[in-house]
Amino acid sequence: MLKIAHHTAYIHPLPEGHRFPMMKYELIPEQLLYEGLVKIDNFFEPELVDRQIVYLAHDKQYTDDLLNLRLDPKMIRRIGFPMSESLVHRELYLIDGSIKASLEAIKTGVSFNTAGGTHHAGKDFGEGFCLLNDQAVAAAYLFHEKIANKILIIDLDVHQGNGTAHIFEDHDQIITFSIHGEKNFPFKKEKSHFDIALHDGIEDEEYLNILNDTLPKLFDRVEPEFVYFQSGVDVLGTDKLGKFNMTLEGCRLRDSIVFQNCKKYKVPVEVSMGGGYSYHIKDIVNAHVNTYRTAIDIYDL
């Protein structure tokens, strides 16, 4: 059975000015249920993860300052959210959701977190509305527990996964791969193990050819035992922040390429949703729901 992490805390702690794009965290499960793609039993509620687990990927001082609401004003500005206990708890739920979804993926081949993909949070900093990095902590957890000894993080959000790259810059067993906009945020890029920076306005055919050419070679080279997929839909041409010009179908085919390679190489994959900032919420939700639909079809779930 496909398992999907979801918690009401994913949306409610967010400041008022950020509610519109974050409505997707409420609407995605509703749409999945409405279309009959999943049932209530497919969802599970994560818990607050223990800070000792957070330390596996994040600096202890930064983590403690964040969890105790004592970050300095400069860091808070860098993050972009006013701090609150409920917002910090949201990050802890996200991490637990991605960890438990990872364990479920080992059973079924694929699993999801309806939120997450907080890839701008680095080892000792938050940035771009990301406080802690859910997939990075989950990857570090699998490695620490010897559940997976070689892990590949595939980040196809339009923005570079700079935080993830920062966390694992000196790690030779957790490998980071990012395809992103060369001239988009973050303007100071970190160095992933593998980076492909693309020009503004790129369309489906060119993007998909690059991905199709790159992924099999990457799987052959890395030989991962587990994959994390950051599936941001801000690659769409309708996105306010994206600067790419991909269609809904192109985004779906992107996801299909990732899932087909994971299945071909028999590597389980956990999916966190990442970004999406189109003017119309339906464009965001439809693109994300396509990711689920594609996985369900490919894995026959």
How would you describe what is shown here?
The structure is a single chain. With 301 residues, the protein is an alpha/beta fold. The protein has one domain: Arginase, Chain A. The chain has helices spanning 19-22, 24-34, 51-54, 60-67, 73-79, 85-108, 134-144, 162-167, 204-222, 248-264, 281-298, and strands at residues 4-5, 43-44, 110-113, 151-155, 174-181, 194-198, 226-230, 269-272. An eight-stranded parallel beta sheet has the order 2-1-3-8-7-4-5-6, with helices on both faces. Strand 4 (151-155), helix 8 and strand 5 form a beta-alpha-beta unit. The protein starts with a strand and ends with a helix. The model has no long low-confidence stretch (mean pLDDT 96).
Q: Using the coordinates above, name the CATH class.
A: Alpha Beta
Order the strands across the largest sheet as they lie in space. 2-1-3-8-7-4-5-6
Output the helix-strand order: EHHEHHHHEHEHEEHEHEH
Main pleated sheet:
8 strands, parallel
Task: Measure the end-to-end span.
Answer: 6 Å
Number of strands: 8
Shape: globular
Tally of helical runs: 11
- The Cα radius of gyration reads 17 Å
Could you tell me the CATH topology label: Arginase, Chain A
